[in-house]
């Protein structure tokens, strides 16, 4: 296999996780209840009734996981801070024991030579805030800024990179529009206030981080090229509508200070939940834009009356898929990075691929080795796709694999394994897979 082209000096290699998916310790150190605790306790919401009460037990085994990061040779580790662990009710004074856990984690990472990259919000809203309206309530944006200030005050002297939100589109769409994720609402387009209030929270939190001296602040969105199902004008229009909702709704306000036109969704004129000053608050200058990429999306015009939306999702034909059924199309990452570069121009900060990975449930061989060649092939192809985008002019500063560990995969429970490290969920035992060694060697080869 030919060597991957060298990426620019200073390029950051890393791995990523999120708090609810790995920490466990759901009732320890004063942690409050989150919307995901409530959702997982609701019968029928999670496959086979799995819960994240223990997950990977990272709360108790974080030193073991930091040792794995050191062995992997990464420059940075993206994790998330659990808002209910820091503010059990989402407001008021900080919970000291909860913050102390992140103190220990940050110090352990720095001792291992790994830069901490915390994400402040990876979907685990304190249930007390959801009881008051969640992200449909404007006040949640202000509570988020207060929480960001608490985290920055405690950890900011040691944290070089901050991320405000993770994938606000998915959180709005799956949690508030379709009901497939916590908090489980199915409001369709009436979920749009949850998009705006998340972005407002991002802007207010960014200002709070800046006030605390944060040197590097990012927002992470998911991005997926919208591919028309055919050359027909109706399919092209459907793909443009999907791109507006998925990409532009969550990127234009941050980078351009304005929402895209939503007339294709029957929304003409100003959005009623946007107040004077909101867009200026949202459009705080950023040091980077996080890109989570897994696959492109094939989009078709809907059949009349089939959906209230101006598009429907179509399957790709004749492509390999992961165990999750997601199409494996590495060129989509190249296109994503180049499209952002072309479409946003000078307004675009440097890009960071903050998640990229695949689910394959490769069982251990009789000798105990986990030879997950499919994941090796996936990672190799996607890093090459990233290098291709850089060669064509995209300013990309880092790449972080999803995920370090097999973990609780939201509504799928423990049925999807994304990790470089296999986790036995009965015992907590960690076993690095062949892809772990491959990624370590890839990083070493990038450091001549």
Summed up, what is this model?
By secondary structure, the chain is an alpha/beta fold. Helix content is about 40%, strand content about 15%.
- Spatial strand order of the main sheet: 1-2-3-4-5-7-10-11
What are the segments in which pLDDT stays under 50 over at least 5 consecutive residues?
none
Distance between the termini: 18 Å
What's the helical proportion of residues?
Answer: 25-40%
Instruction: Give the oligomeric state of the chains in this entry, treating copies of one chain as homo and distinct chains as hetero.
Output: single chain
Structural class: alpha/beta
Describe the 3D structure.
This protein has helices spanning 19-22, 35-40, 58-72, 83-86, 96-111, 127-130, 139-155, 168-177, 192-211, 233-255, 278-282, 331-344, 373-391, 434-445, and strands at residues 12-16, 76-80, 115-121, 162-166, 217-222, 226-228, 288-292, 297-300, 312-314, 351-355, 396-402, 421-423, 430-432. With 448 residues, it is α/β, with parallel strands linked by helices. It has one domain (12-445): TIM Barrel. The strands form three sheets. It has an eight-stranded parallel beta barrel with strand order 1-2-3-4-5-7-10-11, surrounded by five helices. A hairpin with a 6-residue loop joins strand 12 and strand 13 (430-432). Helix 13 runs parallel beside helix 14. The longest helix has 23 residues, at 233-255. It is globular and about 60 Å long. The model has no long low-confidence stretch (mean pLDDT 97). It comes from Glycomyces terrestris. Keywords: Carbohydrate metabolism, Cellulose degradation, Glycosidase, Hydrolase, Polysaccharide degradation.
